[in-house]
Specification:
Blueprint lengths: L12 E5 L6 E9 L3 E3 L10 E3 L2 E9 L8 H9 L12 H11 L17 H6 L4 E10 L5 H10 L3 E3 L15 E4 L2 H14 L7
Parallel strand pairs: 1-6
Antiparallel strand pairs: 2-5, 2-6, 3-4, 5-8, 7-8
Length: 202
């Protein structure tokens, strides 16, 4: 029997906070099927990092300044693509539909733009053994990464893969984390984002 491509999705999970803003911060939940040894570009001079099978989280932001742009949707759709001729993440198609419904983007070309590895997360997300299983989009012109990164670093159910991994354009922290209890981490994030709700546009 032909082996089916790894796809952990049954119902894609989307959570969107805030309104009337097309930029913001975001969280990707990622499931890794098996242990991987990955070189994250120039990080640690190209030394491979062991990525064990399990649940992961990546934290980022997309704060473009063009009034007509859709930086948050564009960044997330890019993450849900892969380079070269590799298939996109299964979540990409429902992501397009959900973002249109939420007003995060007006239209998306059916042809997926070429992708080149740049962000640390790209090297993980390019692997077919890794799939995005959920997305949290926080619509705000403010950079909320630092506050969320600090909360995640203090949570007992998160483990950094390596110091500063995934935090190329942040002042501190690690933005690519392994989760030992995804439910507890999701609960904490919901509470933390709710506490930041006064900063979200309405």
């Amino acid at each position: 029997m032909k082996k089916q491509p790894f796809n952990p999705l049954s119902t894609p999970k989307f959570t969107i906070f805030g309104d009337n803003c097309r930029m913001g911060s975001y969280i990707l939940f990622i499931r890794v099927e098996k242990n991987l040894s990955i070189s994250f570009g120039r990080f640690q001079k190209g030394e491979p990092v062991l990525v064990e099978a399990g649940e992961y989280l990546y934290l980022g932001s997309a704060l473009g300044n063009r009034p007509s742009g859709s930086p948050l949707a564009a960044r997330l759709l890019r993450h849900a693509s892969r380079s070269g001729k590799l298939r996109a993440h299964a979540i990409r198609k429902p992501m397009v539909k959900r973002f249109k419904e939420a007003g995060l983007v007006d239209a998306v070309s059916k042809k997926i733009p070429p992708k080149h590895t740049h962000w640390h997360a790209d090297w993980l997300l390019d692997r077919l053994e890794a799939e995005i299983t959920g997305v949290v989009a926080i619509r705000s012109p403010l950079r909320l990464e630092d506050a969320l990164s600090e909360a995640l670093a203090l949570h007992p159910e998160t483990r950094p893969l390596a110091p500063r991994l995934g935090a190329q354009d942040a002042r501190s922290g690690t933005h690519l984390l392994r989760l030992t209890d995804i439910v507890l981490v999701e609960t904490m994030l919901t509470e933390k984002i709710a506490a930041l709700s006064d900063l979200l546009p309405t």
